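Fold it.
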Amino acid sequence: MNPNLAVLIDGDNIPSNYVKEMMEEIAKYGNPTIKRIYGDWTNPSLSKWKNVLLENAITPIQQYAYTQGKNATDSAMIIDAMDILYSEKVQGFCLVSSDSDFTKLATRLREAGKVVYGIGEKKTPNPFIVACDKFIYIEILHKEEESPTGAKSAQKANFDKITAKDIRFIASTIEDVADDDGWAFLGDVGGLLVKKQPNFDARNYGFQKLTPLIKSIKSIEIEQREGPNPRIKLIYVRVKNK
């Protein structure tokens, strides 16, 4: 099943140069049937969005700043989200913002049985992150670009360093789903890691997938097994005996 998703973007809190990669990421989780971005489009600072919106078929929603100091964009986005929820046209939402004001909205949507994906910058407050089923840092989506000479740009995400705390977190999660011999199917481990910590992502540490991240941790062993289809290998992991 490819669930329908409503993608709601806070234009005041997300840089426009990440949109292409962001939409590619969202496509992994479902079909973005509703794509809207909110902001005061009379504001010259939002003019850089114009071509990006056309290229990605995102509908701009005009929201005037009626009162200085009040974020009318947030209110418009929240009202629209609730209207979409009651229309029952989607199975999930993708809330794109680095603003903690959407924490209650994410919680309410999940209470209604909808899957909620959050996308925002690393500065996003933790309450909004943990209110989502999964949270993706937008910085890890930005790809290196090649210049006309073939050289790659120097712009890269600032990856997190794997700490002892991270390793303990991964190890305890493996043990939570392990069999009597200590082995756990990596797919189950990955799912539980995100349930425990919605912003957990191997890409935060510079790895494209969970498997190479696990391989980099010396205290965890890894084993390939044949599945029902011999051409597909299943990955199992176990915490080494101390």
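Residues 164-239 form a domain with the Nucleotidyltransferase; domain 5 fold (CATH 3.30.420.610).
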